[in-house]
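Researcher: Please predict.
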Amino acid sequence: MRSKQKKKERTIRLLYIVGLLIPMVLLVLLVWALLGDLPEGTPDYDPPPDRPAPSLALAGGDGENTPWNLVLVNSAHPLPEDWAPDLTVIDPYTGEEFDSRAIGELNAMLRDMEAQGLHPLVCSGYRSYESQVDIFQSNVEEALSQGYAQDEAEQQASLWVMPPGCSEHQSGLAADIVSQDNQCLDESQDSTPEQQWLHANCQDYGFILRYPRGKTEFTGVNYEPWHYRYVGKEAAREITAQGICLEEYG
């Protein structure tokens, strides 16, 4: 009688243990199945749904043979979030930086301007992705305060400040150059002797006025008489001579 009772108790315990194990096994199999479906190398960076994923676009060349200085950066062609050019400080006082491969031409241009009695100031060089996030959001909030809806505010902001990943400043090849006597980023820069000299001569140092007047339909950015982009001397002279923007070059 006792033997039967013990056997019954062992059976109950075994059934109890099995009852606990089955859900655990099923849970492990479910987790394993889900993990097995995840693609390898899933990127950490998820771009906003209204813009394409980062992929380098090249202007003025044939793909792989296009030089580094002609990388196209705009809303349709964003840079990767972790884009990290080799940088050199332009001016220790401001701390602004520029691509090390082109800073020699930038410094030569600034020196020649100063030799002629002009007073240029690079007020913005390289910007990180994170910096562009802050700047863009600040412009969006300003537009929101003026009564724009969210989508409209972002559109308004992008006419003056590119969304994160889409700014040439992140490439390290763009510089906002103003007059020390007028540091306003508006069309009043047009009347300064510094901008007049730059508009006439920047191509000789490999730079172009990146957002010229009348090209917003191609660039997506309003006229900015202070924003210069290094593209190399040959390309700069061709772009300037043809009266085109970088999006049209090629």
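Model: The longest strand covers residues 224-230.
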